[in-house]
């Protein structure tokens, strides 16, 4: 938990503490290296002589600074390029609340709507008119607008509330927007200014990029069509996953905000500008598959994504974010702010199997999206370059393979350090005829299919070890690879993806993250024409659709789901929409057994899946919702030790924290986490308060049930019945969680889990319960 002890600190002290938290190497000296910074300004202190904040900033702060963006909707302030001495000078201004060094972020990289329970002409698709007139803002790498997924055939006029534009640029004109893709913008000033200690990075490389909303990478086109792609018949990726491609909200409108650039990531200053602009433009949902690339999250007051998201949510915009791809280790989930909906990744019931046959007759199962000439059962010599103990060779890094060793052979390459498809290119250049991509312990049994350039099969850790053992024990090891196409009806599914970011929440474990999981493995969606399906420069193939995996793919599923729910329930808040998804999420797979973890094969836990797997056939009618107001979020920030000025950095307004600090567990979240001190010996009780709002039949009675009460823990709920009427739509209840620390046996994850459910005979409103111990501060 973070505590900020300087409620009345001067702006200069404020600045020094912020910068020291950001980078220990940042020293205010004579170093005149310029970098880009973001300044949070107290907008209420603007002198009346200036007609706008822009005039104020450019007059009072700009000279001799280079201002990049001015923010005035979800955030008040500006970003600028300046030296460290200039930062020290500007930070002393009494209106400057905080300073952030601009940071680079990374992207978290057909059948899934049906897998979520969506059906034509009935249920949520029908009730919401497929998301018509709801606007989804996609923060990503842009869009390739010519795809069928972005057709506006039979769509009505652009919603009147839309205030955005179709920004033109290289190979992108106003005609590229239509009644489906209603707006497109690009943000490059932060990117071009750079945030490198060595000085500004190179400008946009226009030989591989478009200075426009056009997508040179593919990631943004894929996420946009996943959220809201139109029906595209006879879709596939080189024959794989053939069928009808469609997004979760096929009639929702799309507004694309290009904040990420090919090979160079996404900068906070540009992301914050996109938040500011998108809310002004009139979006209803923001989908952001972006975060830190190391699984480490900054405190909310140092995280422009969290700050921008708060500004959006406070104005009624739902924000869906990816949980990160740093799993399967604990505390790897990112995008932790409680006002954001954080989405992990799961498999669906479709797979692309491939099979390795060894010379001794053994057959090993893996996956692949290879679509070229097959090996036709021919056996080739098998070689493992890592056998000699050279790490770069075992990973098949660039220029690491000796052609004499691998030419004409199938090569085993260990996963890690470089792109999976890039390893295959290295093998090809060295003359290899095929590749076995071997998982290590950290990847476990989690498999990701890729559109490889040469015959390739990805194997889980156990079978990869079997192949290596075979090579060591055989005088003439041989193998071949067969490709099985597309298989439907895979069991078990869903399974928590091995790479998906896991809890506990590293900032505030009282808030369970991720919130839920959604399809994120082997997802078919639209693709750019700028690059081939592997994204490699040497891949000359072009395809309308591509198959990708990552929490980047799961996030837009929830964004599309939020659009459907917003269309069906226009008066619901972002918190109510999230609650509907979480309390109706499933924890059971298609075998009617508890969901498992792809990495281990064991049962998964709420640290892996949050409240469970998105189940949209139930979310439309959840019965009860856990709503959260802006004041509730402010009270939460007070409860974790933030002072008024620090809270103002996040919320734009200074807070009046009560003398008696509230409990962070009492944020009205759909999940419940109880933390007990490890120093406590004996019996301890945590009392947690929740309030539910009836959104179902007005005269309803709900009864509580506590499930999976773990050993050493007793959970009691009072009252045990909630009675609602026309006049009484909100009811509060108390959850008392008592832990006998002498008999409490924590699992491998350091926690035990249960759940409570409210039911009226039709609806089941389920909340996970997490009980854990923490070291005292």
UniProtKB/TrEMBL annotation:
Annotated ranges, domain Subtilisin-like protease fibronectin type-III: 666-771
Stretch forming the signal peptide: 1-29
SUPFAM superfamilies with a match to the protein in the record: PA domain, Subtilisin-like
One function term, GO molecular function aspect: serine-type endopeptidase activity
Coiled-coil residue spans: none
An annotated GO cellular component: apoplast
Active site: 140 (charge relay system), 219 (charge relay system), 552 (charge relay system)
Name of the featured protein: Subtilisin-like protease-like protein
Organism from which the protein derives: Quillaja saponaria (Soap bark tree)
